[in-house]
Design brief:
Helix content: over 70%
Largest sheet: 2 strands, antiparallel
Structural class: mainly alpha
Radius of gyration: 22 Å
Shape: globular
Distance between the termini: 35 Å
Number of helices: 20
Length: 510
C-alpha cells in the first residue's frame, strides 16, 4: 500500500469507532471497551507505519490541489501522530480500570474517539478551513468529556471552557475568512506561496493577530488561560491527561508551529509577541502552581507554564529554538499525561486530591509513587530525564540569540532557568505531601491502583527515562526531521503543489 493511503485511515478509523462503540455498548459494555482498545492499537500501528515511510500527500477524491482537499503526512505531522497514538492507547488502557465507577462508559469511549479523530485531522490536513473543522470536532467532544461526571463543578468548568473556546474558534474562523477573501484559496501550501510573494499588509497582520489570540487561547497561553485551571481538574483523570498531554498541543501549539512557520514567518513583531507570551505563561503559571494544594489544579497551572517553554522556543525564530520547542512538546505530552494519570490513581484510591490530607503513599502505592517521582523529575528538568534535554535546547537557543537580541537574550535564559527551579520547588512539595511523610490513619487501608491503570503508568515512566537517556537518537530520528519539515516552506509547497513548483504566483492571480 502506498504510504499516502494510510493517512485518511488515521482519521477514518477513530471516526468509525466513535459511531460503532455506542451501538456495541447497547449490547454489552465490554464490547465497547474492546473496540476502543482495538482502535487505539490500530492507530498506533498506522501512525508507526506513516512515520517509517516517506513524506506523502493524499488527494481526497483525486482532486488536484489547491482546488481539492489534501492530507499531508510529513515528519512534523507524523511525529504528532505517533505522540497522539501512544498517549491515546495508554489513556484508553488506563480508562479501562479508572472508568469503572462511571456510568455510560460507551459514550465516554465514543467521545474519546471523536477527540482523537479531530486531533489527527488537525495534524494531517493541508487545508486551513478543514483544520478549523477538525479543531471543532475535537473541541466539542472535549466539552462533553470535561462535564462527564455531571457534578456542579464539572458542568461549570465545561461551560466556561465552551464559552472561551468558542471565542477562540470565532477568532480563528474570522482569520480564515479574511485570508480567503484576500487570496481566494484555503490550501495552506498555496497560501504560503501567495503570501511569500507579497509583503505582509494590514490584512495579513490582522489575520496573524487573530490567529495568535485564537490558537493562544486553545493552547491556554497567558493571558488566554482562564479556562484551563478549572477544566483540567474537573475532568476525569484520563481526560485531564488528554487535554494537557495532547489537546492543547494539537489544537494550539502544533497549529502555531504549522501556520506561522508554514504560511507566514516567525520574525520581527511576531517573534517578540510569542517570546513575551511564552515568558508570561512560564512565570505566571509556575508561580500560581506553587501555591496550590489541589493536586490536579497544581498540575493544570504547570501545563500553562510548560507550554510557555514551547511558545518561547517558537518565538526565538531559530532552528535550535524550534527544535527545543518540538522536543519539549513531545516530552511534555509524556510526563504531563503521566502526572495526571498518577493524580487520578491517587484520587481513586484515597478519595481526595488535597495535598494536606495525603502523605506516606509510597508504602501503599509503590507503582504510582515511583512513576509519579519519575514524572516530577522530568517536568522539573532534572537530568537524565527527558524534560532536561528539551529545556536545555531552549536555554542554549536563547543564549545564542544574544547575537541579534543583545543582553535581553541572557535575561530570557535566566528566566527560563528560574522557572525550571520553581517547578522543582513545586514538585518537591508534591513529593513531601503525597509520597513521603507519615501515612494518615484514614488511609491505612489504601491499595495500589488496578493493574490496567498501572500498566499505563509504567509505560509512560519508561518513555520519560528512554527519551532522556536516548535523547540524541530521539533528536536525530524524530525531532530534527520534524523541525526541518516545519521550516522548509518551499519543500512543503513543492510536495503539495508539484505541478506549480516552477510557477511564479503572486497575490491576486487566480
Amino acid at each position: 500500500m502506498d504510504n499516502s493511503q494510510l493517512l485518511p485511515l488515521l482519521i477514518a478509523v477513530p471516526l468509525g469507532g466513535a459511531f460503532i462503540i455506542p451501538l456495541a455498548g447497547r449490547l454489552r459494555e465490554k464490547a465497547a471497551e474492546a473496540i476502543a482498545l482495538l482502535v487505539g492499537v490500530a492507530l498506533l500501528v498506522l501512525a508507526a507505519a506513516a512515520l517509517a515511510g516517506p513524506a506523502s500527500v493524499y488527494r481526497m477524491g483525486k482532486w488536484p490541489p489547491p482546488f481539492g482537499i489534501v492530507i499531508v503526512g510529513d515528519s512534523l505531522s507524523c511525529l504528532m501522530l505517533i505522540l497522539i497514538a501512544v498517549l491515546s492507547l495508554c489513556i484508553i488502557i488506563y480508562a479501562l480500570g479508572y472508568m469503572k465507577r462511571f456510568t455510560a462508559r460507551p459514550k465516554f469511549y465514543s467521545l474519546l474517539m471523536l477527540m482523537i479523530a479531530g486531533m489527527n485531522g488537525v495534524v494531517l490536513t493541508g487545508d486551513i478551513f478543514n483544520l478549523y473543522v477538525f479543531l471543532e470536532i475535537a473541541a466539542i467532544s472535549s466539552y462533553a468529556l470535561v462535564a462527564f461526571g455531571t457534578e456542579d463543578q464539572e458542568l461549570e468548568a465545561a461551560f466556561k471552557y465552551l464559552v472561551l473556546s468558542g471565542v477562540a474558534s470565532s477568532f480563528i474562523l474570522l482569520g480564515i475568512a479574511l485570508l480567503y477573501s484576500k487570496t481566494g484559496t484555503l490550501n495552506m501550501a498555496h497560501l504560503a506561496k501567495l503570501i511569500s510573494a507579497a509583503p505582509a499588509d494590514r490584512v495579513v497582520q490582522f489575520v496573524m493577530a487573530l490567529f495568535i489570540a485564537g490558537f493562544g487561547l486553545k493552547a491556554a497561553m497567558v493571558p488566554f488561560h482562564a479556562w484551563l485551571p478549572d477544566a483540567h481538574p474537573s475532568a476525569p483523570a484520563p481526560i485531564s491527561a488528554m487535554l494537557s498531554g495532547l489537546l492543547i498541543k494539537a489544537l494550539g501549539v502544533y497549529a502555531i508551529i504549522r501556520i506561522f512557520n508554514g504560511i507566514f514567518s516567525v520574525s520581527g513583531t511576531l517573534s517578540t509577541i510569542l517570546i513575551v507570551m511564552g515568558l508570561l505563561s512560564m512565570v505566571i503559571g509556575v508561580l500560581l502552581a506553587v501555591g496550590q494544594w489541589d493536586l490536579k489544579r497544581l498540575l493544570a497551572y504547570h501545563s500553562i507554564s510548560q507550554m510557555g517553554y514551547v511558545v518561547l522556543g517558537i518565538g526565538l525564530g531559530t532552528p535550535l529554538g524550534l527544535a527545543g520547542a518540538i522536543f519539549h512538546m513531545v516530552n511534555h505530552g509524556v510526563f504531563k499525561s503521566l502526572l495526571f494519570l498518577c493524580s487520578g490513581a491517587v484520587e481513586r484510591s484515597t478519595g481526595t486530591r488535597n495535598l494536606k490530607e495525603l502523605g506516606g503513599l509510597c508504602h501503599r502505592m509503590p507503582v504510582t509513587c515511583t512513576t509519579c517521582s519519575i514524572a516530577s523529575l522530568s517536568i522539573s528538568g532534572v537530568p537524565p530525564f527527558n524534560g532536561f534535554w528539551s529545556k536545555l535546547l531552549i536555554i542554549i537557543a536563547a543564549v545564542q540569540a544574544a547575537s541579534t537580541m543583545g543582553n535581553v537574550a541572557y535575561v530570557i535564559a535566566g528566566i527560563t532557568i528560574f522557572v525550571s527551579f520553581m517547578t522543582l520547588v513545586s514538585f518537591v512539595k508534591v513529593q513531601k505531601y503525597v509520597i513521603f511523610g507519615k501515612l494518615p490513619e484514614k488511609l491505612a487501608a489504601v491499595k495500589e491502583a488496578p493493574v490496567r491503570m498501572c500498566i499505563s503508568l509504567v509505560v509512560l515512566a519508561v518513555l520519560c527515562v528512554g527519551l532522556g537517556v536516548f535523547s540524541h537518537a530521539a533528536l536525530r530520528k524524530l525531532v530534527l526531521p520534524a523541525r526541518d519539515a516545519a521550516l522548509d516552506k518551499a519543500a512543503y509547497v513543492e510536495r503539495v503543489l508539484p505541478e506549480w513548483g516552477s510557477q511564479a504566483v503572486t497575490l491576486g492571480e487566480q
